[in-house]
Amino acid sequence: MMWTALLLSRLQFAFTVSFHIIFPSFTIGLAAWLTVLETFHLVTGKPVYRRVFEFWLKIFGVTFGMGVVSGIVLAFEFGMNWSRLSEVTGPIQGPLLTYESFTAFALEASFFGVLIFGRSRVSPPVYLFSTMMVALGTTFSAFWIMVNNSWMQTPVGYAIENGIFVPTDWKAIIFSPVVWVRFPHMLVAAYLTGAFCVAATGAWYRLCGTYAAEGRLMLRMGLFLAALLIPVQLFLGHLNGDYVHDKQPTKFAAIEGRWHDEQPAGEVLIAIPDEAKEENHLELKIPYLGSLIASMRLDSKEVGLTSFPKQDRPPVAIPFFAFRVMVGCGLLMMALAWLGSFHLLVYRRRGDRLLLWATFLSFPLPFVATLTGWFTAEVGRQPWSVYGVLRTADAVTPTLTAQAVTISLIIFAVVYLVIFSFGALYVYRLLKIGPVEVEPVLAANAKRPIAVSGGSPIVETTQGGGLL
Known about the structure:
Layout: H1 5-44, H2 47-80, H3 83-117, H4 124-153, E1 158-161, E2 164-167, H5 170-174, H6 179-208, H7 212-247, H8 249-256, E3 267-274, E4 279-286, H9 289-295, H10 317-347, H11 353-360, H12 364-381, E5 384-386, E6 390-391, H13 402-433, H14 449-453
Antiparallel strand pairs: 1-2, 3-4, 5-6
Helix pairs in contact: 1-2, 1-4, 1-6, 1-12, 1-13, 2-3, 2-7, 2-13, 3-4, 4-6, 6-7, 6-11, 6-12, 7-8, 7-10, 8-10, 8-12, 10-12
């Protein structure tokens, strides 16, 4: 294997974006849940909602800040590693990222300070409104990033003039059917991430015998929300599969592990793909199911990888296995959410320790599902940066050297490891402290804002945790 500037740049971007996506996939869902908690507190007046809100607000502040720090680097990489991509697609990608700044970042920057420090300074309805605006800002951030990425997946509404992609129809770009399939899928994934993290925390407190009321609330709300959302997510995932089948047949064939055209097509459940021999080893396959999944017919003809030139095929192993890991995580989450919700509804306050342990240990599942889904989408798009029209090899900075990328990759890995370690340690300490009784609001003191905020972390930023 040649460690070229292109390969190293791809590895570097994959590393930084994989690290970054962990945080917005958590904070988008958590921001929405904070809005629900504040609404319940305002309507019912029950202190438990306020305690749980203040507890998760601190965790939200830390993870939001880590998402900002890790996301800023991605913008630099577009200029340092992918200058040709920025040059030729700038007329389209530039405005889309600007729209993110005007909507998502503006809302987050305007109302985040109120969310952290403003409870004693504004009325309860205004504070609730600020919470809603922060949640809306994180959603806008996800939307514009998914519009941008979806255009790279299925480019529409453009013309090429002197080698530059020029927008000709912004309506087609922003309201592409692909966007309105992929954006809800990503948004629900974020909600599920927040739901399982909240449920896992509640299960932990129940196992430890601490914070009984707060733990019960987290467990019930987290599992109930997950039980409702997972069927929706499975349906959205099927719609995503339809667009891949129609618009990116090479990616679909790689995901399916299908080397040759088949009619009817079987569904490969598991195998070991061999790109050199263009075949699968240890294959477990169900006849007819591949045609049914792909076309909702039992006799449809499905295309194989050998129908495309080798230089136009993606790497097979990564999307093949990543897709199956994603689906496996989704099925595990569905089983746990449904069983857990049934148990809580039927047996109410009686706790099953096995269920609690399963819920506690489930918190990595949505993160793994999100990452493997992203790997499937991005690696499956190769060798294209803009699918079908701009190859990744033509998008990298021409003057970039392998040595320069190696040095920056090592620096990013060390810095990110430090950031993640300290951030994870601080979040663990917040989880260990748990929800505490909310003290009476103190008088504002401009010289000591932390004292007023109850120790909530300060995150000064002009950027949001977008899915860059």
